Amino acid sequence: MKKRMAGIGGPGGDNKRLKAYVSVKNLDKLGASGGSDVSLETLIRSNKLSISISGGSDLKGEIQCDELSLSASGGSDAIIKGKAAQVKISASGGSDIEGYGLITDVCRVVSSGGSDVSITANKQMDATASGGSDIHYKGNATATTSKSGSSDIRKVTN
Q1: What is the pTM of this model?
Q2: Per DSSP, what are the bridge partners of residue 14?
Q3: Where are the domains of the chain?
């Protein structure tokens, strides 16, 4: 197994806005940090996909996979759509995950620290919210919920 690291920078270490276009044949992990903006230009197909965004990063895209793990922290935002049989979502530190367009059968969501998560679940939904977080879901899932403080977990009908 080889790890490859790539660095992108401007002359003299300045902080000019740079764009990088990356093409891969198979994608199973994606990470973004430090205020990065990631846009998935085409549908990402994968058996098992792990996405982690942190430090104010933003992600937008469409996926199709059997298993999706999505983690957002430190004020990061994700707008994600597509289909995944099983989804695990962790949101913390004021992060937002807009996923009504992400349709899943089985979903587990943990949201904390003022984070907001939305998703569509059709069979099973396990949701835990704390610290003023909100979890809103659509679909016909049987839900098991746990909330504390001023957090809210709600099924949305429209």
Answers
A1: 0.88
A2: none
A3: 20-155
